[in-house]
Amino acid sequence: MTLADGLAWLDRHINLEATAGKVEGLSLERVRRLVGVLGDPQQSFPVIHITGTTGKGSTARMITGLLAEAGLAVGTYTSPHLQRINERIARNAEPIDDDELADLLADLERLEPLVGASNSYFELLTAAALRWFADIAVDVAVVEVGLLGRYDATNVCDATVAVVTNVGYDHTDGQGDWRARIADEKSGIVKADSTLVLGETAPALLPIFHRAGAREIWERERDFDCESNELAVGGRLLELRTPSSRYDEVYLSLHGAHQGDNAALALAAAEAFFAAPLGDDVVRDAFGAVSMPGRFEVVAREPLVVLDGAHSPEAAATVAATLHDDFERGGRTILVVGLLQPRDASSVLDALEVDTAETVIACTAPSPRAIPAHDIADAAEALGARVIVEPDVATAVDRARTLAEPNDAILVTGSLYVVGAARSHLLG
Q1: Which of 57, 113, 158, 336 has its CA 20 to 30 A from that of 376?
Q2: pLDDT score recorded for residue 24
């Protein structure tokens, strides 16, 4: 089987990432049977499991960097991908190669009849990642939840360390006490013998996580924190505190004050895993070298071109603040925006401050869940924005670059699918 054959087989399975709407009958039964057929590879290595509304990907990347810098072989499983599916499954941040991924998918195709049910696209990819991590004998796996937590396919793992970044407006109908319901679902990754590293600080939600049954809980502000977070050239300069140590003047090579908070969370998770502080050199080298494609990624200057997959109001507000706070410029802002259902376009656009932008170019994300460009344009115009409709992402990016002066900024955002298409167009 070639990789193209394997991906064609994979695409014949239901892909919840490509569909919108409520999922009924949530259960881990199918994926447990699947990993059971594979010999339960998730039991071959310890796991750091990460959930949260925003910051999961960045936190996973930073934890991976810290553990790898400390000398471990680290498997990392994240979703979705930007340009190639291989990005989701990596060893020390290096994606799995085509032949290895093709072999894994061929094995899954051969073994799937033994499961007795058809698995989903994400369940199959999760099983492939866990099998590969066992095959290459990683020392630890950093696993990012795909959706919420309790019934996510990744929850077949019994985490040594469970990480919750935050709780925001995420996969909800917004009715009633939705924050508590989301917190309860995310708390489902906590296992009885795990340490919970908790980034959420809302007092009303803390009891939910305390009831989840972790052996130990480390809370942001009480047990760990980012105590100083200053703008630096190309990133941030941080002071970080953990239960056992303090790290001063740590350079983080990522833009945005929010990344300082993610760094504190990642550092706490790594120390919880080792049950010991990390060396200063490990922290400095890991954070000084970390990169995060598609998360406030600067891909060009004069004009400044930034890619960020912000897809929720919280994430959109963060990217707008980062563009304003981290870059001194006298020019205008041009936004290229594409969104997916079931996101509320008006809420995301409002958080992006579209009324202050010179122009909003609405595009259609390359996904079956895409909100049509014209619908995004209507929402932006209702908020007072000047709007252009260019449904194709690459054409929208080119239009923005044509309009921009050297001191302007172009922000491409709204979905990782949009950012992935823009990245492929701009960088190849």
Answers
A1: 57
A2: 59
CA gyration radius, the chain: 21
Q: Which residues contact 39 (CB under 8 A, 6 or more apart)?
A: 134
Q: How high is the pLDDT of residue 26?
A: 80
CATH class for the region spanning 3-289: alpha beta
Domain ranges of the chain: 3-289, 297-427
What's the rounded Cα separation, in Å, for the pair 196 and 51? Answer: 11
pLDDT digits (tens, 9 = 90+) for 96-136: 999 999 999 999 999 999 998 889 999 999 999 999 999 99
Residue 171 and residue 53: Cα distance in Å, rounded? 9
CA angle 177, 178, 179 (to 5 degrees): 95
Chunked into runs of 10 residues, the chain (428 residues) has average pLDDT values of: 96 82 74 97 98 95 98 97 96 97 97 90 97 98 95 97 89 73 96 97 97 97 98 96 97 97 98 97 98 95 96 93 89 97 94 97 96 98 98 98 97 96 95
Going from the C-alpha of 396 to that of each of 207, 302, 387, the distances in angstroms are 46, 18, 12
Helices 56-69 and 280-289 pack at an angle, to 10 degrees, of 130
How far, in Å, CA of 81 to CA of 122, rounded? 12
Domain 297-427 matching CATH 3.90.190.20: the answer reads yes
Degrees (nearest 5) of the Cα angle 258, 259, 262? 95
Distances (CA, A) of 387 to 64, 309, 321: 40, 20, 21
